[in-house]
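COMPLEX REQUEST
Ligand: coenzyme A
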Amino acid sequence: MNTTLESAVAIRTMQPSDIDRIVLIEREIFLFPWSPGNFSDSIKSEYYCQVLTQAETILGYGIMMMSPEEAHVLTLGIAAQSQKKGFGKKMLQHLIAHARTEKAKSVFLDVRESNHGAAQLYLRMGFRQIATRKGYYPAMCGREDALVMQLML
Ligand SMILES: CC(C)(COP(=O)(O)OP(=O)(O)OC[C@H]1O[C@@H](n2cnc3c(N)ncnc32)[C@H](O)[C@@H]1OP(=O)(O)O)[C@@H](O)C(=O)NCCC(=O)NCCS
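STATUS: Structure written out below.
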């Protein structure tokens, strides 16, 4: 990546006015996307809602729910054309750093069993699978299991 573009990458708090752009990305990358309401509810609920921008354009987002001693990554997405450039890792590192600042002892997330790319990212970041939720996600043909992953901080 060229240094000028790299330096223009930033992560900031998600605003309600970001939701239209986020939902466009969401619909592009998820088969069962969150609705605009899901994002605005996350902001209203004061979840840790962040966007990754490059030259002011939103390329990705991450939402994490904090509870005493634990953090739960609820969603993480990078626009299709910006994937595999290190942005997902950057956003995840940012969420983990926030969880550490808030004194969480671990970070949890769920990932579809078929989502090998995301699972690979989580494994490389130190997450380990601790459980399976049977039929947790809707799928094209019925339901799909979720892998529950945990990172000890
Ligand atoms: C999963 C996702 C967030 C990863 O973001 P990304 O910017 O593409 O990933 P990065 O470039 O930061 O990759 C970091 C590491 O993750 C792994 N990885 C990411 N995508 C991968 C893929 N498709 N296949 C295998 N490994 C992958 C690699 O190990 C990579 O490390 P490396 O560059 O040293 O090889 C992104 O692909 C995405 O938004 N996917 C669609 C939505 C989704 O599945 N979200 C997660 C829901 S749980």
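REMARKS: Residues 55 and 79 are 15 Å apart (CA to CA). Helices lie at 3-7, 19-29, 36-44, 87-101, 116-124.
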